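Issue 218. Parser rejects a valid record. Input:
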Amino acid sequence: MDPRRSDFWFPRPFLAKIFTFNYIANIDGCNGQNYQIGVLKYIYRLLKLLIVSPVVVRCYIVPKAAWLIYHSSVGCDNLREKVHYDVDTKNKNVVLNERGYKDCEKALGVSSLFEEPTDASGAWAPYVLNAVKAKELFTKGVEYTVLGNGEGVGIIDSFTGRVLDGRRWSDGLHQSIEAMEGIEVSEQSKVIAKITYQSLFRQFTRLSGMTGTAMSDAAELEVTYGLLVTPIPTALPIARRDYPDVVFRSREAANAALVKEVLNVGGGSKDGRPCLIGTTSVLQSEVIVKALAKVGIKTEILNARPENSARESEIVAQAGRPGVVTVATNMAGRGTDILLGGCPSMMARLMTRSFLIDQGVLEVSEKAFYPPSPSKEYYPCDINDDTISMLMETASLLKKEFSEGLTAIKFDEILTVATDTTEGDDDPAYIVTLRDAAQAVKDIFKAQLAPEKEIVLSRGGLCVMGTNRHESSRIDGQLRGRAGRQGDPGSSRFFLSFEDDMFVVFGGDGLKNILQTFRVSEDMPVEAPQITDALNKVQLAVEEKYRDIRGQILDFDDVLNEQRKVFYRRRQQLLFSDPKSTLRIIDVYNRETVSDIVKAQTNEDGSVKIEKVLEKIGQFFPSALPLVMVEDIADLKQDRVIHFVNIAVEETFNAKVDELEKKAMADGRAPGSLARSANYITLVSMDNAWSDHLQNMENLKENVFLRKYQDLSPADEYKRESLSMFEGLLDKMRLNTIFSLWQSLKPTEAVEASH
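Output the parser choked on:
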């Protein structure tokens, strides 16, 4: 993908992430482009769900933060809810009260949690708050999981159930969770650039995409992006039956009813219906698996645990076979069809891959990138001798072509070309042979799986069961939609309880009153129109809340995005400027800095503090100071002092440029060394200042939310204060550049004297 092109196709969210990373990292100057056309697959996820998850570029800093985080985590064990702090579950936040602050300060031996220590390691307050957040708001197996091989904590995507590779919580929260889990605390990172997908993609003049679940939020997509949603009718009539939800008083009773339903439809038996059970967390999926195991039902589990996630294609390929029971965390977001009777093409690919790996086509070290191969019982039948001979021939050709062994990435690429593309005239012999062998395996499996498909069709197709309503009804619809694909039969039903998190947090007294009205036993489902209406209202309230949050985030991000455009435009100009243009920029910076110095040292009556001016000139323009005498500028007005100092600075700078140019010519080096140094120093100063600005803007965002208690609009306050902060950013970039550049221009003697 060439980042300098003006039109882009994003078939997978991770490609959009790569493009976004290139933009904010300014790779190849791609953030200076005028983007024309963007086509997105899974557009819903990119444009709506990921709005609260910007792509960021980080560097690792604050080595002492690990010590602070560890002690904060240990100390927070002694803090108690309602005594030292309050938990706001709806907004995922904790607030320390006065006693909490005082007890923490006493325990840590500091006068204030907000006091910056002399070693500049940071105040205690954010570390203590993050430790309490980790303790109260984050649950292992729900929001995160502990990865193997010392890889730390992995964030679980609430929409797909997968671990978000490379993603970390910011502002020290990730490290606080690591400390809570008792594993090695990683270095705290600092954001040096970030952007939301929404801000990036709204720069395209034409944007389009495809998804199966946009109609429920068509109005929001139109308001936010100006995109109209057009529904396309299904190719075949929908044969799936969606049964009403059943609700129980307790989660345990709901799980027992779900297990009973699996038994009733033949789950676990050779001629029963395949069952897909959708959960919303790793913990819940494992509870269901244990409950099914007690009644003798073997299950396949698909969740965020690495050992299970790595087998996703293997598990999904057979999830439609008779009697197979699959428990999946957020199957709705996995984007994979479950074929009734099993998927012969995926099974053939797995068989082919396993056979070739056993024949030694991979480098030894590359085998670790693949999960263990499925057992022989996984496949519907054995393959014949002719097919084995074809696979052996393929292995021989691959070894001959890649004598040193294949890498895992190259091997996957070869498999994809052979199994997912049509034959080409220029295909090498090993691709042709591999394609024929894989097709032969597929034909064998397809013939064997055909009767199984008929069994599943006759039993009523895939049976989908859900354990929880999701925060978005769209996700529930996606889970139901796993059954009844392409006109196949199927059914769906949700087994809910009044103990489910969403109903406990957002249901309030309304659901409690309903429980008192319907006095039923634990194992009896509560079925009534009032129940369904009440649960729908709770889910609608949750959706409205998150819709408001997304709107507020967009309002804030619009402000930062305008600043980002100005910053990147300036950076872009500097990045590709020639030496003369760079020196012109430095000349402007010199004049603006001189003007700021003199104006800051001017009294109300217009007189200039000469000694203070000379002191500042010595700091920022040390080489020019000898040209500015007290008697030269004494008794001059402000504008005359500025003019005189500018002349001295300009003469000194031009003389240094000429000196370095002559020296470069004498040494046979390329000219423009000072311009290159100035360019580098300016870029570094800009990047450092921008990184600090991003953190300051994040702090401002948290601060303005408290002002709503003063009847002030957080968005308006954010816009007002961010403007002055951005003006300060531009000044900071300029002053840091001038200071660093002129320090490098000091005469050698002056440098030595300073030491």
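Fixed in the parser; the record now loads. The chain has 26 helices and 16 strands.
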